[in-house]
Structures are given as C-alpha cells and as structure tokens.
Amino acid sequence: MSDDDTAPRRSHGRVRVSPTSQPRDLMADPPVLQGAWTARVITLVPQAFPGVLGESLTGKALQAGHWALEPIDLRPFGEGKHRNVDDTPAGGGAGMVLRADVLSRALDVAARGAPNRARWPVVYLSPRGRPFDQATARRLAAGDGVTLLCGRFEGVDERVLEDYAIEEISLGDFVMTGGEIAAQAVIDATVRLLPGVLGNAASTEEESFSNGLLEHPHYTRPAEWRGREIPPVLLSGNHAEIEKWRRAQSEALTRARRPDLWAALKGEE
Ligand SMILES: C[S@@+](CC[C@H](N)C(=O)[O-])C[C@H]1O[C@@H](n2cnc3c(N)ncnc32)[C@H](O)[C@@H]1O
Predict the structure, then answer these.
(1) How many whole angstroms separate alpha carbon 251 and alpha carbon 258?
(2) 226 Cα distance to chain centroid
(3) Helices 239-257 and 259-268 meet at what angle, rounded to 10?
C-alpha cells in the first residue's frame, strides 16, 4: 500500500474510490450511489477490490450503477506514525490480532449514511461464523447494503464484535489467510440477485438451493460428444417430461451428495 497522494485513483463503477486514503479523508462520508445496493468492505488490502467482481456480469452491473462497491482501507485508521492495526494476543500465543480501537474507527466511518442495521447488516467474515448460503444472499440482497469486515492474521479483538453486534459468516470449514476472498464470494452471490444484474442471462429461481435442491445437469451441442449422448428426453420437445426428468435428477443428486439438504427438505414436507 502506498500513502502517496498522487497514487492513481481507481474507479469502481460510478463511484470513485481511492485505495490510499489520507487521514483527512477519514472525516468524509463514504460516497453513496443513490438507491444502489452497496457493499462497504473494511480491509487491509483494498487493492484486491473489485477483483473478479469487476469482471463479467457483476462488473457490468457495477459500471451500470446497479450496485456500488466501497473498499475502506483499514491502514489509515491505525495507531501512531506507522498506523499499526494489530497487536500480540492477550494471554500469549502465535500471530497478531486486529485491534478493537482501530477497527471501531473504520466501522464508524462505514456506518455513515447506513444507519438502519436491519437493512444494512455488519458482517465479519470468519471461519467460526454461520455457513454462508443462498438464504443469506437473499436476505442481504433484500436490504440496502452490507458492511463486510475482513480479518487478517489471527482475527479481530472479540470486544469489537460484541460491541457492534457484528454477525459472523463463514465461507466454509477451512481457513484462509484473510476475509477478502470470502467477502467477494458473499458480494458476488448477493449482487447477482439484485434487479437488473443478470438481465435475461439466467433465472435465479431455477438454480441450486432456490427450491432446497441441487440443480439438475445441463447439456448443450454437440448432441454427441466422445460417444456420450444428451439424454433423449431433453431433445424430445415434451416439456412436461423434461420437467419431470429434471426434478428426478435434482432429487437424486441432492439425496446422494447433500443428505443434510435432503433431510431438511423432507422435514419441511
Ligand atoms: C488466518 S484467518 C484467522 C483464523 C482464526 N484464527 C481461526 O482459527 O478461526 C484470518 C482471517 O481470514 C478470514 N477467513 C479465514 N477463513 C475464513 C472462512 N472460512 N470464512 C470466512 N472468512 C475466513 C477471517 O476474516 C479471518 O479473520
């Protein structure tokens, strides 16, 4: 990260965001694109954004203003000349912990213009969190935005999570070096549910998880490839039979691969 005032500013969609905020910028309200669902991301590596979110459908939607992205560099909120953001864990042990006082300053800036926590949750990406799923993506997409706190090192001081009543979300049962990849996954899954983002490219109603099942297999041309044929029912033109086949495939896949989803579905019936 550079503290150079002359460093190029990078544009994320219609909102210009500098990854090199000077301390005076901390007083400014984060830019809000009127009406657009907004992801604010508190991170030590703001240059990792938009990353893959700047590509393809999410990137086009960002440019079109269907959503907005505001990385908030944690470094300028640090302590002292070197803007220290972390310290050794109380009680000893390996690694470093992100400081509560430093994080709170960034969280306070992130909260500006986003007072309704019911419509703008604050989330810490963490392996201890509730596993991220499609229902959570739908909940986030129904709000005005989200503030995502990306951990690094050993994580964050617990007190800041308690004090700000921060929800914890996990990408899965594995440990990454930072929360940024998880943040991008959460944003991607959420943004594609926003009106106007997918256009006619896909229906989110027929996808995996939307009805509690994994999706059926897909096929396209050529009709035969390496001796493998497309299941004839898909070429029959009989839509009722095609639907029946797809449902049966979805159920078989879900039963075999995700007994947890299958049991949940059967419990609902
Ligand atoms: C090395 S991890 C810290 C792991 C932590 N000491 C633990 O054992 O739970 C550093 C950061 O990466 C992020 N992270 C790592 N794995 C993650 C996961 N599965 N889901 C979401 N975030 C994750 C979190 O933000 C975390 O603070």
Answers:
(1) 10
(2) 38
(3) 120
Note whether 149 and 129 are within 8 A (CB): no
Domain 204-268 has CATH 1.10.10.10: no
Distance 193 CA to ligand 1 centre (A): 26
Burial per residue of 126-138, b for 16 or more beta-carbon CB atoms within 10 angstroms, e otherwise: bbebeebeeebbe
| Beta-ladder partners of 178 | 152
Contact (CB, 8 A) for 186 and 138: no
Nearest ligand 1 atom to alpha carbon 150: 25
For the chain, the structural domain boundaries read 10-191, 204-268
Q: 147-195: per-residue pLDDT in tens?
A: 999 999 999 999 999 999 999 999 999 999 999 999 999 999 999 999 9
**Architecture (CATH level 2) of domain 10-191:** 3-Layer(aba) Sandwich (3.40)
Nearest C-alpha neighbor of 64 from the set 42, 37, 39: 37
pLDDT (mean) for 235-245:
98
Residue 227 has, within 13 A of its CA and on its CB side, a CA count of 0
Say yes or no: CB of residue 154 within 6 Å of ligand 1.
yes
Asked if residue 44 lies in contact with residue 75, where contact means CB atoms within 8 angstroms, the answer is yes
| 8 Å CB contact between 120 and 147 | yes
Q: Where are the beta strands (DSSP E) in 44-132?
A: 67-73, 86-87, 97-98, 122-131
User: Ligand 1 centre and the CA of 157: distance in Å?
Assistant: 13
